[in-house]
Amino acid sequence: AVAPMFWDNRAAGFAEQALGPVRSQIEMRGPYLTEEQIWDEIADRVNNVPEYQTRFETVYGGEATAARITQALAAFESTIVANNSRFDQWMRGKADALTFQEKAGMVSFLDEGCADCHNGPMFSNYELHVLAAPDGPWVLEPDKGDGNFAFRTSTLRQLEFTGPYFHGGHVATIEDAVEFYDNYDDDEEDGDDDDDEDDENGLNPAVDLSLLDEKLQEVDEDEIEEIAAFLRALSDSGYFKDEPAEVPSGLPVGGFE
C-alpha cells in the first residue's frame, strides 16, 4: 500500500501510482487534454457506463471519481501475487526445486553483494542508486531519475516476463542485464569521465562516474550465466493472468490491436 513506485520513487502505493500513466501524454492522456482535465474525463466516461455506475455505487457508495477508480485499480493489482517460484519452493523446503547451477548462482549473487540492494521478499530495498545505466536510444534528453541520475532498485521477481531491463530498457536479456555489472572498470576508480570511454564501457556518458553508488560491485564474467540462472528461478509463471471475455464498457479486451 505504501511501497515506493516508479523509477524515481515519486509515488507511494498502487493507488497513487495509478494516477501517473493516465496523466502522462505519452502513455494514456494524449495531446488533447491537460493533466488537470484528464481524470475528470475518465470519471465521466466510467460514470456513463450503467454497469460501472452500479458497481461503484455498490462498492464505494457513490459515483466513480479519480480516487475511487485508483482504489479499484489498486485492489485488483494487489491480487496479482507471484510467490510460488522455484526459489520460493526451495525456501519452503523442496530441496530439488533449484538446479546445481541455480544454487551456484545464488551463492555468487550473495558473494558479489547483489543482495545488499536486492533483498527482502521483493528482492528490492526500494532505495535510489546511481548505476550510470544508459537511456534508451529513443530518449531525446538524458533521464535524470530523481534529478541526480539515481533510480529505484528494481525487483528481481518475474524477470522472465518483464524485459527489457533497467530504467531505459537498454538490454533485452537477463544475461545482458547481469553483464552490465561487468562494465565498472578502472574508469570508476580514477574518476575518468571521458564520454567516449563511458560509451565503450556501456555506461551513461551523461553521468559523472564519481557519483556511482558506493554499494556497486563488479560481477565477474564467469559468474554471469549462473547468476542469470538463479534470477530466472525467481519467476512464477502461475500468477493470475485470466482475461475476461468482455468488459462493461464494450471496449476491446486487452486494448486495441
Treating each run of at least 4 consecutive H or I residues as one helix, how many helices? 11
Strand element count: 4
Strand portion:
under 5%
In which order are the strands of the major sheet placed?
1-2
End-to-end distance: 32 Å
Instruction: Identify the overall geometry.
Output: globular
Let me know the largest β-sheet: 2 strands, antiparallel
Helix-strand string: EEHHHHHHHEEHHHH
Mean pLDDT: 91
Helix content: 25-40%
| Uncertain segments | 186-191
Structure, explained:
This protein has 257 residues and is mainly alpha-helical. Helix content is 37%, strand content 4%. The strands form 2 sheets. It has a two-stranded antiparallel ribbon. The chain has a two-stranded antiparallel ribbon with strand order 3-4. A hairpin with a 5-residue loop joins strand 1 and strand 2 (11-12). It is globular.
How is the topology of this model organized?
Layout: E1 4-5, E2 11-12, H1 13-23, H2 25-29, H3 35-47, H4 50-60, H5 66-77, H6 86-91, H7 100-111, E3 128-130, E4 150-152, H8 174-179, H9 186-190, H10 195-200, H11 224-232
Antiparallel strand pairs: 1-2, 3-4
Helix pairs in contact: 1-5, 7-11
Summarize this entry quickly.
The protein is mainly alpha-helical. It contains eleven helices and four strands.
